[in-house]
Every structure is written in structure tokens, then in C-alpha cells.
Design goal:
This protein is of the alpha+beta class and about 200 residues long. It has helices spanning about 20-30, 30-35, 60-75, 105-120, 145-150, and strands spanning about 10-15, 40, 50-60, 80-90, 95-100, 130-135, 160-165, 165-170, 180-190. It has a single domain (about 5-190), classed as Cyclic Phosphodiesterase, Chain: A. The longest helix is centred in the middle third of the chain and has 17 residues, at about 105-120.
Length: about 200
Amino acid sequence: MNEQNQPATVRVFIALAPPDDAKQELERALGPAYRTHPRMRWNRIEDWHITLAFLGEVPAAVVPLLRTPLARLAAARKPLDLALSGGGHFDERVLWSGVDGDLEELGLLAGEVRAVADDCGAPHVGRPFRPHLTLARARRDTPACAVRAAAGLAGFTGRSWRAERLHLVASNFGRGPGPIHYRDVGVWNFGQEPRP
């Protein structure tokens, strides 16, 4: 793709990604909700993530500026032990699973990531950090679906897993009402010096 075809802005966020087996465990727990609420807009399991900082639309030129400080931040941190647990909803429309484990360290990491973004000219968008994994959104005509699905997850406790990498992710909304697609534009291992 030549420079003329490069987008002027890109929608990005910084996140942790649970391993496949932890996501599959949660997916099995969601089985009844999938069957009972098929009209909800369910996120694809391969896209499930824990957002540390949502940056929104940023100039494409800012993305390379984030890479080095995020790599340094990851190198200076240890992996975190986390687990997916329970469920809830935001505004009776957004269904999520909660996060347990090293929550104090997770909060510190989110603060550091947000500071890096601010320093690079891409301040985070949104509310204070509340660790969760977004699963689905209810359609406007059936808002109670998220509330009922969250109740079904209340007793869910997933296995512990280790978050070992920091992800810088771009989302591609495409055209029309189709699904959102995500792709990593940077991934760094915790506790490892980045390669030159």
C-alpha cells in the first residue's frame, strides 16, 4: 500500500489478551446465553481482550511513536496472573466478564500505559480503568438481554492464566454494519528487552 492509500487516522487501543483456553472456558459458560439471546451482537472470541487504554481515532503518524515507550514499559514489568470471573453489564446494554487476580498490578499497568499514550499525543478516551472483557452488545430494541446474560455469568470463575504480552491493537470497522476486526500493530513480552 503506498502512502497515498494510508489512512489519515487509525482507531487504536492497548490491551491484554487472554490465552485461547481461558477464552474457550468462558465461551462454554456463555453457551446458554448464546442460545437464549441470539440477536445480541456477540464479539468474536478471537477478538476478546482486556482494554488498558482506549485511544480512539489518532493520527496514523502517532502509532509509531507509541511503539518504543510501550516496548520499554513491557520490558520493565513482570507478567500478571489473572482470571476471568463473573459478569455484568454497562448501561444495561454492554455485557462483560470481570477480571480477578493481580488487580493492583493491573491497575498500575493501566495507569502507566495511559501515561505513555498521553506523552505520545494520543490520550486515552473514556472512563477510569475498570478491568473487564466485553462480550456483546444488546440491540436497542432488546436491552434486557445483557442484564439477563450477565446474571447467567454471576457464578462463573475461570482458571488462572498469565498475561505475558502487551498488545497495541488497531480496529478496522470497514464499511457498513459488518463486524469489527482487530489486528495487532505491536506486541511486547513483559520482562524481556525488546529486540533492536
